[in-house]
């Protein structure tokens, strides 16, 4: 049963990535503008120059042929060459990936610790719960860029506690530089996860088997650990996992606000310059990471609740 479930999820993951790669390639390739003009190196290329460039980069081939060549290159470890910088996309993205992944990891830890923690605390403490509901509503309504600007102005410009721009060098220095960006990135998600966690825990506390355990005089700590949190884990895990999976895409705004040299800022610059291979590689990478994360969440939920392993098989 467990092996069958893993095989189904693995097949679904592969199919998702293949479909996503086609959508990404088509969406980016069909954007307005002629990349041959950029690749020619001149502002007014002749028809002969454009024809030569299109032939060299297979731009004169049908789009399905270009997609096949692109996919073949990816499977062979070649994700393309930047039109603007004329270097491998991997060499261009690699140095920036560390900053983005550390930012996302930092934000993810804040979401898990603070979001889930305050949600559980608010469910077990009704007075605190009402404050959390109000606070989460305010945090969820604030745009990320506005929050980033506000936090930067207060804690960096006015108080001088944190740097205004850059990612720093060295692990501890990077953590210091990325604290405000991570808080800005995670704040709305912390509020959302906290609200979902509180709702799930409160719902389980009102369940009949939990109330029966209370009447039997079982200590509250054991009731929360053995019954409430265990049964509320599935929705909390799902929401938290999907939220974290989307952080890399959301980090684009934060990287711009704090001047971080990550893949988000590279994506914006590449899109503006019509650097198609870079845009395609970054967007596909984000989609793949999202698919991997959601698959991991499904597997984790199935390990918590064995009944979920047979859901797909019964359809």
Automatic annotation (TrEMBL):
Annotated signal sequence range: none
Membrane spanning stretches: 12-30, 101-124, 131-154, 174-192, 232-258, 278-300
Domain ABC transmembrane type-1: 97-301
Protein keywords: Cell membrane, Membrane, Transmembrane, Transmembrane helix, Transport
Keyword Cell membrane: yes
GO terms, biological process: transmembrane transport
Cellular location(s): Cell membrane
One Gene Ontology cellular component annotation held by this UniProt entry: plasma membrane
CDD domains in the cross-refs: TM_PBP2
Matches recorded under InterPro entries: BPD_transp_1_N, MetI-like, MetI-like_sf
Family the entry assigns: Belongs to the binding-protein-dependent transport system permease family.
Protein name, UniProt field: ABC transporter permease
Residue ranges that the Swiss-Prot or TrEMBL entry lists as coiled coil: none
Main location: membrane
Membrane association type: Multi-pass membrane protein
Pfam hit, one: BPD_transp_1_N
Keyword Transmembrane helix: yes
């Amino acid at each position: 049963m467990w092996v069958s479930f893993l095989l189904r999820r693995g097949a679904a993951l592969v199919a998702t990535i293949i479909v996503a790669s086609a959508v990404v390639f088509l969406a980016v390739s069909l954007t307005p503008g002629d990349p041959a003009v950029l690749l020619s190196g001149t502002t007014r290329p002749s028809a002969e120059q454009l024809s030569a460039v299109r032939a060299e980069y297979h731009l004169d081939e049908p789009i399905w042929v270009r997609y096949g060549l692109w996919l073949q290159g990816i499977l062979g470890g070649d994700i393309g060459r930047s039109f603007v910088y004329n270097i491998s996309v991997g060499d261009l993205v690699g140095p920036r990936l560390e900053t983005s992944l550390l930012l996302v990891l930092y934000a993810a830890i804040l979401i898990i610790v603070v979001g889930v923690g305050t949600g559980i605390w608010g469910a077990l403490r009704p007075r605190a719960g009402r404050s959390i509901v109000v606070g989460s509503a305010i945090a969820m309504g604030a745009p990320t860029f506005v929050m980033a600007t506000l936090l930067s102005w207060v804690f960096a410009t006015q108080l001088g506690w944190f740097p205004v721009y850059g990612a720093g060098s060295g692990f501890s220095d990077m953590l210091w530089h990325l604290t405000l960006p991570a808080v800005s990135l995670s704040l709305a998600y912390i509020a959302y996860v906290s609200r979902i966690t509180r709702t799930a825990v409160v719902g389980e506390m009102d369940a009949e088997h939990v109330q029966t355990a209370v009447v039997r005089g079982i200590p509250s700590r054991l009731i929360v650990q053995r019954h409430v949190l265990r049964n509320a884990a599935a929705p909390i895990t799902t929401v938290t996992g999907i939220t974290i999976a989307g952080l890399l895409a959301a980090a684009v705004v934060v990287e711009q606000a704090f001047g971080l040299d990550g893949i988000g800022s590279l994506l914006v610059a590449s899109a503006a310059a019509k650097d198609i291979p870079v845009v395609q590689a970054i967007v596909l990478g984000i989609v793949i990471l999202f698919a991997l994360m959601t698959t991991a969440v499904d597997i984790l939920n199935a390990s918590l609740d064995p009944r979920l392993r047979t859901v797909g098989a019964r359809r």
